[in-house]
Amino acid sequence: MPTIKDVAKSAGVSPSTVSRVINNHPRISSETKKRVEKSMKEIGYHPNIIARSLVKQKTNTLGLVMPYSTEEAFADPFYSEILRGIGSVAQNKEYSLLLITSNGMKEELEVTLKAVRSKRVDGLLILRARSNDKLLKELKKLKTPFVIVGRPEDEKNNFWVNNDNIESTKKLVEYLIGLGHEKIGVITGDSKYIVYKDRLEGYKRALEDNGIEYNPNYIIQTTGHHGLTTKYTKELLESYPKLTAIFAVDDLMAYGAILGIKELGLKVPGDVSVVGFNNNPLSQLITPSLTTVDINIFELGSTATKSLINIINKEPTEYYHEIVKTNMIIRDSCGGYKG
């Protein structure tokens, strides 16, 4: 197996110079770095990552805190896409990824803190923002670098990356209003997740700004389970048959809503228009194709990962956040009100 001495001999430099190249020492010239890296590749030398980690007190591993079990998370295309964004940056920066999944908040706290205390990760990407989050408080006590994908309750004292969910939702609902819809139902998720609170707030603001009365009875809350969403949609439309449109806070819920509408013998968009959120890949393939908001999931993941690596390496003294732009995608699931 090739050693540092072999690389040094091949590149015509000292072993200490090779070591500095491996550790990205700032005083090594780009010419020397290229020559050493070329020699490493030619003779098949690979640095001992574990040894480097022990010396640097770093693992070069990022922990990804998922809000669900592995099975549930990967049933949602959002997570496969955000992992693609995270992985693109992590690979480029030579970081490995550790997936942290759980069944509930208590287990999430235990598993995540175990990974941190056992020094298995250099920092964490928390792929959700939740109310009264004990995990954030514990991580701050441990001085663990972390970035939240989502808007935390304490915006000014955290690093986070998000979309403007309130404004994006307001524009989406106003699109429905512009088509003549005033009685618009909402399918939302667990209120402990701030993203759902923000999207519901955007809905309320759209109604208020357009002089439409808000009716809390038009709101149904679901876990996101496909069967439940279909069931609740049918119950909502049976209770309030004058509803002409439904806003679902994410695309998976919109799919369940469309199925529920069809099971009632109604047509989308002929009888009820439907809009979703997130622009999951399936949204352009279902029938009818779904009008939704593209939140640029890949960019959310890549931006959050860049921020975390920056925090790990540079330790910024002030908290900051970044907002990723959204785009409304108009497809076939909406039509004008025919009443």
From TrEMBL:
Ranges for domain HTH lacI-type come to 2-56
Q: Which UniProt keywords apply?
A: DNA-binding, Transcription, Transcription regulation
Q: Known InterPro entries for this protein?
A: HTH_LacI, LacI/GalR-like_sensor, Lambda_DNA-bd_dom_sf, Peripla_BP_I
Classification via Pfam families: LacI (PF00356), Peripla_BP_3 (PF13377)
Any one Gene Ontology MF annotation carried by this entry is:
transcription cis-regulatory region binding
Xref: PANTHER family? HTH-TYPE TRANSCRIPTIONAL REGULATOR GALS, LACI-RELATED TRANSCRIPTIONAL REPRESSOR
Q: What name goes with this protein?
A: LacI family transcriptional regulator
Protein's organism: Orenia metallireducens
Highest lineage ranks of the organism? Bacteria, Bacillati, Bacillota, Clostridia, Halanaerobiales
